[in-house]
Design brief:
Distance between the termini: 46 Å
Shape: elongated
Order of helices and strands: EEHHEEEEHEEHEEHEEHHEEEHHEEH
Helix content: 10-25%
Amino acid sequence: MSGAAAEAPQSTPVQTLIVDEDEAGLRLDRWFKRRFPALALSHLAKICRKGEVRVDGKRADTSTRLEQNQKIRVPPLKLETVAAPAIIRARPEDARELAEMTLFEDAHLIVLNKPFGLAVQGGSGMKRHIDGMLESLAVGDKRPVLVHRLDRDTSGVLLIAKNRRTAADLGEIFRSRQAQKIYWALVEGVPKPAQGRVSLYLAKGADMGEERSRRTGDRRAAEPSDAREKMRVARHGEDGAQHSLTYYAVVDKAAPRCAWLSMKPLTGRTHQLRAHAEAIGCPIVGDPKYGHRQEDEIRRRDPMRAIPAELAPKLHLLARRLILPHPRGGTLDVTAPLPEHMRESWDFFGFDVGRDDPIMAAPDA
């Protein structure tokens, strides 16, 4: 990476700009940030409140969704002095690796088979991730866009839009729950009933997101950090609590040790399936954060219920299948194969991947 010297302060005249195809579906604030990276969002909010920003002649707020060919009146702007962004050097090997992960591709989108252990986005100390690798597929200033997320240790189907318009369309499909997401997991124990519905309120633990930043340096030595970096079951109305809903079905089992679950989340909360599996007493095999309660440790001391040592100590969770209406017509239906460590576990127990998946009969609402 390399950078340039800081930009000189700028002021701009009144302009009328047109929303192009790749910007359709963007929020107004994101459109401004893309066109004017040095504009302070606080200043944008102020000029929107004063009615100085107009979309097709009408007042607009920062959350307004834009459509192609709309005309945006941009008032005089005073742009901050900021350092030019670092130039990201695309690596040819990233493009090759993405091609090897590709399950489906057309003119509008890409479906990847994300491997275990590869992050989707960057974070603290995270130098290699899917979002960064997408730079290798950029054409000019346009590059593919992430549509949804998977945990770093979750394998399987990951959807990428090739342009902003497709990303906006797919985002609306996800928000309106038109997308069916099917996950496979190997869990400890066998849930009862064999098919069910998990409906819980979840909230972030003390070391997640904003809570983590507020409590930096306030760690309790007696409590592992992982226990505080996980979602917790909360009460309705509690600050930060969000409703979460998952349908599950046992596909096969090696009772009483473990079961192969198919899971259909209808909401998309952080760590939702991992937290739900723990909540029903059947944590996902190999989960480093969930399934470490006292009752879980007691269960593992029972030789009849302990997970065999032959299984890989990796998260056994796969984003198996994604079904949704394609933004340009028809249906997108893509399935990911088991990652190597899960395939070895399926072989160990004699599970047949060709079995009918009972979760397909679960409701979509």
